[in-house]
Amino acid sequence: MALSSSLRSGRRGKLKSEINVVPYIDVMLVLLIIFMAVPANETPNVVNLPRAEKSTLPPDTYIQISIKPNAELSIGVHGKASTPAQTMDTRAALLTRLRELHAENPDYPVLIAGDRDSKYEEVIEMISEAKKMGIGRVGLATQ
Fold first, then answer.
1. What is the pLDDT of residues 1-15, one digit of tens each?
2. In 39-58, which positions are buried (b, 16+ CB within 10 angstroms) versus exposed (e)?
3. pTM to 2 decimals?
4. What's the order of all strands across the beta sheet hosting 110-114?
5. What are the Cα distances from residue 11, in Å, to 2, 14, 16, 71, 78?
6. How far apart are CA 116 and CA 132, in angstroms?
């Protein structure tokens, strides 16, 4: 008879209650390497915008729209035919005043002065609204 040695001696072998973790460690190391090698698809928190040199002199007379970070909007004519800047409560009121100023002075360009801490989206939307009104020259005021 071919019985195993444990049965011949009358003793049964002890069951091993251990878990072999070596394969799990191998899998974890492979996953770690993959996650380190694949770049994250998140957008960066800091955007380094390019700096622009002054290419031309600003116009003599222009309509200036100021956007402050606390959502304060103001509009006025600067230059030879200067008018004091008016603070507007809403964007709709500002756009109405811009239409009036553009109708009175269709040759005046519009300069949008967005504060450093104001939202970029508000500045872009203001440029878009000015272009929709048919204003040909819309620019950004810089220091």
1. 554 554 555 566 777
2. eeeeeeeeeeeeeeeeeeee
3. 0.58
4. 86-88, 73-78, 62-67, 110-114, 138-140
5. 16, 9, 15, 86, 103
6. 25
